[in-house]
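Entry:
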Amino acid sequence: MIEIPEAFHISSQITATLSGKRIGSAQAAFSAHKFAWYESDPVDYADLLVGKTVVSAQPVGGMIEISLGDVLIVLSEGAYPRIHQAGDKLPHKHQLLIVFHDQSFLSVSVRMYGGVLAFELGKGKNKYYLLAQKKPSPWHGVFDSAYFDELINQAGMEKLGAKAFLATEQRIPGLGNGTLQDVLYFAGGESENKDI
């Protein structure tokens, strides 16, 4: 699943590689997948995306938000993008395929489950995306010790273990089991981690 570190890294790759590329064709839901979800009808994605130009990408919690100006593409959970060069073989299965005017393309495949959302700016309805937009990332200055104290001092938090507090209920969007293991390891104590 995409978590905070992957979202940052993949977003920077998309920005560096795809910014300025114009979409020539787009197709969503080519391969049936029970656990791939979309924003509205995926049949309408071509009309929404064709002719748009990639501006940039940024992480939103554990999601990847790709800006096309007045349209956004948001990839979440197990929706993994791959950038292909012109002439590369098309993947057999994909939940989103975007071909650019230079014939390079972006494919998105959902592994276990994931969201492939495309919508006009300001019209996204996915509750996890909207929640992640409102909360600061641990990699930004706003997520400081005072903010963390606000989270941990909420009613009922004293009953939770570290894993339940940190990685559930979208308290810290994008912080999942993978990243949590590293956080807990490095928080284990100064003497145990002094050589790392």
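The mean pLDDT is 93.
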